């Protein structure tokens, strides 16, 4: 028999007045997995998390923790009786307590002995890199350290599941990138399952085993970061995760299409994509790393003639705005060492093997 999911939601709904905040959501998180809800502001991520925590009750549907029903229309287990740890955007650590007291608090609530509290708090502080700082006032710490206190407090009683609601968003950009990796490494050492909420796609991709992309209270697609990026199921997922460059096409054969508005430009269709019928319209969506600016303007197969209109130096690479002969403006990234002058005649080459094909848009 396979282990039950650590967390399972079945057809969960939650309305606030006229707003369907969560609209028939189902998911299952496996042991040791980091599962992320990713989506724009207001799509229902936090409401979902709050229903798992017990801070909101679902209007309908069921929530199971470790195979046990913890929320349904009939009954809801209060938050303190759900074995889940939580870290929020505002770390909500207690300013008048020391680091040790903050982390010890959940154990005291659960009636642990003094000796066991000392041992477990010391262990967990060591684990999050705060060993020796137990007697510090909780607010005499940097933002990153306070975030670790909140994390230590959430995991000290060894919950089945850790809920993280944008826990890194109050940190500055550099520390946030560092903490992402730290958090991932800590999670892997602990082997704890995590439900993570963020609107930051880079953060989601670094931390997650699987991501559910949400829009308007519903899940659009669930998959690994690579599957979502390379094989998006909907235009929303395609455009939300990373950048895309799109070209309108008219399909001319089973494996080839003409680019609309660009004289003499054809592209190979990606293999395996169900192409629309001959003569049908479609949209080719390419990731920026599959598009190249090259120093000769020769339109042809997978190649558009263009002129450089703008150049932005971004350090890692240069972003060129190029105007195609047919008048489309494309934003293309190029290695820093390859420079083009404004007004230069170039061609834009597209490697379509990793592109996706969309009809009906
Ligand atoms: P954010 O990233 O901004 O936190 P979110 O994806 O977490 O957004 P939710 O906070 O779950 O979204 O909100 C989903 C929808 O439900 C939004 O339209 C929001 O305005 C609404 N909503 C959430 N909580 C309440 C509430 N307590 N009362 C009324 N409406 C609410």
Q: Strands of the biggest beta sheet: in what spatial order?
A: 6-7-8-3-9-10
Order of helices and strands: EEEHEEEHHHEHEHEEHHEEEEEEEEEE
Total number of helical segments? 8
Distance between the termini: 45 Å
The ligands found in this model are: adenosine-5'-triphosphate
Low-confidence stretches: none
Shape: elongated
Query: For this structure, what is the CATH class of the largest domain?
Result: Alpha Beta
Account of the protein in words:
With 361 residues, the protein is of the alpha+beta class. It folds into 2 domains: 7-240, P-loop containing nucleotide triphosphate hydrolases (Rossmann fold, 3-Layer(aba) Sandwich), CATH 3.40.50.300; 245-359, Beta Barrel (OB fold (Dihydrolipoamide Acetyltransferase, E2P)). Helix content is 23%, strand content 34%. Helix 5 links the parallel strand 7 (161-165) and strand 8 (193-198). Helix 2 (99-109) packs parallel to helix 4. The structure holds adenosine-5'-triphosphate. Adenosine-5'-triphosphate binds next to strand 2 and helix 1. Adenosine-5'-triphosphate is lined by residues 16, 19, 21, 39, 41-47, 199.
């Amino acid at each position: 028999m396979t282990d039950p999911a650590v967390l399972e939601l079945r057809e969960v709904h939650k309305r606030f007045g006229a707003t369907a905040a969560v609209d028939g959501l189902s998911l299952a998180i496996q042991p040791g997995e980091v599962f992320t809800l990713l989506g724009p502001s207001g799509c229902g991520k936090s409401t979902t998390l709050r229903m798992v925590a017990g801070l909101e009750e679902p209007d309908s549907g069921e929530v199971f923790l470790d195979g046990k029903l913890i929320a349904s229309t009939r009954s809801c287990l209060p938050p303190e009786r759900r074995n889940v740890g939580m870290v929020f955007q505002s770390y909500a650590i207690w300013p008048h307590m020391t680091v040790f007291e903050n982390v010890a608090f959940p154990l005291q609530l659960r009636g642990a002995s003094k000796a066991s509290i000392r041992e477990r708090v010391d262990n967990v502080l060591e684990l999050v890199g705060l060993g020796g700082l137990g007697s510090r006032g909780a607010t005499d710490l940097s933002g990153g350290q306070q975030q670790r206190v909140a994390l230590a407090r959430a995991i000290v009683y060894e919950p089945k599941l850790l809920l993280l609601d944008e826990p890194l968003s109050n940190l500055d950009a550099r520390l946030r990138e560092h903490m992402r990796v730290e958090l991932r490494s800590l999670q892997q050492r602990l082997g704890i399952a995590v439900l993570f909420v963020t609107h930051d796609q880079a953060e989601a991709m670094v931390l997650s085993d699987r991501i559910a992309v949400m829009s308007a209270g519903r899940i659009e697609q669930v998959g690994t970061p690579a599957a979502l990026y390379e094989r998006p199921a909907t235009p929303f997922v395609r455009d939300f995760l990373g950048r895309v460059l799109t070209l309108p096409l008219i399909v001319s054969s089973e494996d080839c299409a003409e680019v609309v508005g660009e004289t003499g430009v054809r592209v190979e269709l990606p293999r395996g994509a169900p192409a629309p019928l001959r003569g049908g319209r479609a949209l080719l969506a390419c990731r920026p790393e599959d598009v190249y600016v090259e120093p000769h303007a020769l339109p042809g197969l997978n190649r558009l003639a263009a002129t450089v209109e703008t150049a932005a130096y971004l350090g890692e690479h240069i972003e060129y705005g190029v105007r195609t002969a047919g008048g489309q403006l494309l934003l293309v990234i190029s290695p820093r060492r390859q420079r083009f002058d404004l007004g230069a005649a170039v061609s834009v080459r597209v490697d379509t093997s990793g592109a996706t094909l969309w009809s009906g848009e």
